Automatic annotation (TrEMBL):
Catalytically driven reaction(s): IMP + L-aspartate + GTP = N(6)-(1,2-dicarboxyethyl)-AMP + GDP + phosphate + 2 H(+)
HAMAP family named among the record's database cross-references: Adenylosucc_synth (MF_00011)
GO CC, alphabetical: cytoplasm
Top-level taxonomy: Eukaryota, Fungi, Dikarya, Ascomycota, Pezizomycotina
Descriptive protein name: Adenylosuccinate synthetase
InterPro entries xrefs: Adenylosuccin_syn_GTP-bd, Adenylosuccin_syn_Lys_AS, Adenylosuccinate_synth_dom1, Adenylosuccinate_synth_dom2, Adenylosuccinate_synth_dom3, Adenylosuccinate_synthetase, P-loop_NTPase
Function: Plays an important role in the de novo pathway and in the salvage pathway of purine nucleotide biosynthesis. Catalyzes the first committed step in the biosynthesis of AMP from IMP.
Residues binding Mg(2+): D12, G39
Residues engaged in binding GTP: 11-17, 39-41, 302, 328-330, 412-414
Species: Pseudomassariella vexata
GO molecular function: adenylosuccinate synthase activity; AMP binding; GMP binding; GTP binding; magnesium ion binding
Binding-site positions, substrate: T296, S297, T298, G299, R300, R301, R302
Length: 430
């Protein structure tokens, strides 16, 4: 049976922390989509670990990890990240990580193209991580990409990569600074190094589910960055929603125990695109500084604003969360008043919209309806039980639950895994 963890906003909600909490009871931890553009920071036993391409289930020495078929896989990052974990003292990581033979390869060629495409977009640029994720998914959709299984057919691999590079060279000319022969030569060694990690991912998970093993699925990015349901085109290039879990892993949808949405107690996003509760004044700056809002993968500072429950409710409608985790509640400790977005009004009609709009032109003009809640002006850092929270902090949690219609089972009150209030358990913890 599987427990699925998904981001409910624009990413960086703290999914890695919940993965870390649940991992001790998981036998298998998987990634379904995205690439090394994802980023989780986990603090365990006083050591901070950063995960990008690798599932953070590697923290658990008894957990087997799988990078699923829907991921775009950057080989140098895979080996670099493994070494970094080993250097920090994690034992046996190379024995506990497997990669589906159906992943698409994210080449350095794709990263070079990513930067050039952002330049082409000018002021309308997406704000990508520049790591080739979009171009890798583009070649996958165009059926010109290269799967992991094809890496082991040297002649086919080299033919396809040269053809791919030639096509991009025709498009960008001398602007493309890339040496295809250099990348081909590196893959001669990668081909040998990868062999022990590659498995049939579909068969791997079918066996695991047939054996009723406890599976933890770690979502990357978040619903509002989903290629279909997010703020398109300011999104990632994969399905990072619930649907992407099924396509990216070929997991049995009838063997799901729980779908957990992770919600930050306020809202952040990276890159371009509409963000209607963004605060460019004192409150936004304070959220950024107190919350240490800069990226694990890129170091970029995140845009910050008030919690948007229109977004969370929309996300819930798509991902069907059975429970929520609320993170970084302690960041709000010193705000005398806390605002929460509970609706959007159409600027033309004054009528409240039924849901989160697809039309970004409309979204940028909406009037945000806020509910103001009293702050608590007391420290909640490291509080362990719900009723030890100040009354106003409990009210904030209960307001979110009532509005969204989903129980909040975990509340984050600090960066460490121990800094968590538990208000129930998942099937994975039983």
């Amino acid at each position: 049976m599987a427990t699925i963890i998904l981001g409910s906003q624009w990413g960086d909600e703290g999914k890695g922390k919940l993965t870390d909490i649940l991992c001790p009871n998981a036998q298998i931890c998987t990634r379904a989509a995205g690439g090394h553009n994802a980023g989780h920071s986990i603090v365990a036993n006083g050591v901070s670990y950063s995960f990008h391409l690798l599932p953070s289930g590697l923290i658990n020495p008894k957990c087997i990890n799988l990078i699923g078929s829907g991921v775009v896989f950057h080989v140098p990052s895979f080996f670099k990240e493994l070494k970094e974990l080993e250097d920090k003292g994690l034992a046996g990581v190379r024995d506990r990580i497997f990669v589906s033979d159906r992943v698409q390869i994210d080449f350095d060629l794709h990263a070079a193209v990513d930067g050039l495409e952002e330049v082409e977009l000018g002021e309308g640029k997406i704000g990508t991580t520049g790591r080739g994720i979009g171009p890798a998914y583009s070649t996958k959709a165009a059926r010109t990409g290269i799967r992991m299984s094809e890496v082991f057919n040297e002649e086919l691999f080299e033919t396809k990569l040269r053809r791919l590079a030639e096509g991009y060279k025709k498009r960008f000319g001398d602007l493309l600074k890339y040496d295809v022969e250099e990348e081909i030569n590196r893959f001669k060694q990668y081909r040998q190094d990868l062999a022990s990690f590659v498995v049939d991912g579909v068969h791997f998970l079918k066996q695991a589910q047939d054996q009723n093993r406890k599976i933890l699925v770690e979502g990357a990015n978040a619903l509002m960055l989903d290629i279909d349901h997010g703020t398109y085109p300011y999104v990632t290039s994969s399905n990072c929603s619930l649907g992407g879990i099924f396509t990216g892993l070929a997991i049995n949808p009838f063997k799901i125990d729980e779908i957990v949405g992770v919600v930050k107690a306020y809202t952040t996003r990276v890159g371009g695109g509409p963000f209607v509760t963004e605060d460019l004044g004192e409150a936004g700056t304070k959220l950024q500084e107190v919350g240490r809002e800069w990226g694990t993968s890129t170091g970029r500072r995140r845009r910050c604003g008030w919690l948007d429950l229109v977004v969370v409710k929309y996300s819930t409608a798509i991902n069907a969360y059975t429970s929520l985790m609320l993170t970084k509640l302690d960041v709000l400790d010193s705000f005398p008043t806390i605002k929460v977005a509970v609706g959007y009004k159409d600027p033309q009609t004054g009528q409240e919209l039924d849901s989160f709009p697809a039309d970004l032109g409309l979204l940028e003009q909406v009037e945000v309806v806020y509910k103001e809640l009293p702050g608590w002006n007391k420290p909640t850092t490291k509080v362990k039980t719900f009723y030890d929270l100040p009354k106003e902090a409990r009210g904030y949690v209960e307001f979110i639950e009532e509005f969204v219609g989903v129980k909040i089972k975990w509340i984050g009150t600090g960066p460490d895994r121990e800094d968590t209030i538990f208000r129930g358990t998942t099937a994975l913890q039983k």
